[in-house]
Amino acid sequence: MLDRLVRQLGGDGPALRRGLLITYLVDGGGRVAELAAAARRHDHERVRAAAHALRDSSAALGVLPLTDLLRQEEDATRSDPASVLPIAELIEAEYMRASVAIRAWCHEPITLQGGVR
């Protein structure tokens, strides 16, 4: 999926791939934090907005387990409010797992929002 996105953007080099991934990590970290905080406040509208935004970018990059959890979270805000917080916690864990894999692929530490490496 990442290769297809790079081709659609008119690029073909590893620098573009790495740039897309770094942007995803930086933006995604903030969105996951926003989603988790909103879930703890029971602000389902904000949870839904953050989940939707992160779902689109996760899907575009092929981060499919996270994409699935984000879809579940969007649905839960509408139909199962009691599961919003537990799903948010799963999203936080899956995002961390994915970010470790992405940073390893980039072959160097990337400082994320809040100083997480």
Uncertain segments are: 5-9, 112-117
Share in helix? over 70%
Mean pLDDT reading: 83
Element string (H = helix, E = strand): HHHHH
Main sheet: strands, sense, barrel? none
Q: In angstroms, what separates the terminal alpha carbons?
A: 25 Å
Portion in beta strands = under 5%
Q: Please tell me how large the radius of gyration is.
A: 14 Å
Query: Which secondary-structure class do the elements indicate?
Result: mainly alpha
Tell the overall outline: elongated
Total beta strands: 0
The number of helices is 5
Description:
- By secondary structure, this protein is mostly helical.
- The protein has five helices and no strands.
- It has helices at residues 2-8, 14-40, 44-61, 64-79, 84-106.
- The radius of gyration is 14 Å and the shape is elongated.
- 26% of the residues are buried.
Q: Helices and strands in order, then pairings?
A:
Blueprint: H1 2-8, H2 14-40, H3 44-61, H4 64-79, H5 84-106
Helix pairs in contact: 2-3, 2-5, 3-4, 4-5
